[in-house]
């Protein structure tokens, strides 16, 4: 995707017969170039923040897509979905225990250990309230999930549900912000 800076540079070089380097410090063209560069930096920063915020959702979808493909791309029962959710919630347990064992006695927990503990507790809390997953109880949704290639826009077409530890299932919407 061409950036604003590249477009502005190209336009100014056409106007000046190919010489963009010979600009006065306070000229209109140099100010246009500066403004375009600042805009591109701001847009890159916003895109990076959005990707970071959406990453947990994408990781969750990828996990469930892989597990459904392993089970033959067939719709699952609530008990099977709960087993997958339990696997997802406790995927960091081994890493947490390993970090915990490496800590010397009497020392405070490391930052990594604290982050893993917070992540595990947040996932467990979400599971008790209602864990957000694609509706893999219907064959149509399983086909949609199987066809997902990683784009964020495609996720809005997939129906979502929330599953609790007690087995309650209710309809849900794709969150526009981060899950946890």
What is this structure's SSE topology?
Elements: H1 4-15, H2 28-70, H3 78-89, H4 93-102, H5 111-129, E1 131-134, H6 139-147, H7 152-155, E2 160-163, E3 169-172
Antiparallel strand pairs: 1-2, 2-3
Helix pairs in contact: 1-2, 4-5
What would you note in describing this structure?
- The chain is mainly alpha-helical and 180 residues long.
- The chain has a domain at 55-172: de novo design (two linked rop proteins).
- 61% of the residues lie in helices and 7% in strands.
- It contains seven helices and three strands; from the N terminus they run αααααβααββ.
- The chain has helices at 4-15, 28-70, 78-89, 93-102, 111-129, 139-147, 152-155; strands at residues 131-134, 160-163, 169-172.
- Strands 1-2-3 form a three-stranded antiparallel beta sheet.
- β2 (160-163) and β3 (169-172) form a beta hairpin.
- α1 (4-15) runs antiparallel to α2 and α4 runs antiparallel to α5.
- It is flat, with a radius of gyration of 24 Å.
- The mean pLDDT is 83.
- InterPro entries: Tma16, Tma16_sf.
- Residues 16-27 have a biased composition (Basic and acidic residues).
In short:
This protein has 180 residues and is mainly α. Helix content is 61%, strand content 7%. It has a domain at 55-172: Up-down Bundle (de novo design (two linked rop proteins)), CATH 1.20.1440.
Strand content: 5-15%
Spans of at least 5 consecutive residues with low confidence = none
Main β-sheet, spatial strand arrangement: 1-2-3
Order of helices and strands: HHHHHEHHEE
The Cα radius of gyration reads: 24 Å
* Overall spatial form: flat
Which CATH class of one domain? Answer: Mainly Alpha
Q: Give the mean pLDDT.
A: 83
* Biggest sheet descriptor: 3 strands, antiparallel
Q: Count of DSSP E strands? A: 3
Helix content: 55-70%
Task: Enumerate how many helices there are, as a single number.
Answer: 7
Give the full name of the CATH homologous superfamily of one domain: Translation machinery-associated protein 16-like
CATH architecture field of one domain: Up-down Bundle
What is the third-level CATH name, the topology of one domain? de novo design (two linked rop proteins)
Structural class computed from helices and strand pairing: mainly alpha
Query: What is the straight-line distance between the termini?
Result: 31 Å
Protein name: Translation machinery-associated protein 16
Family: Belongs to the TMA16 family.
Organism: Hypocrea virens (strain Gv29-8 / FGSC 10586) (Gliocladium virens)
InterPro entries: Tma16, Tma16_sf
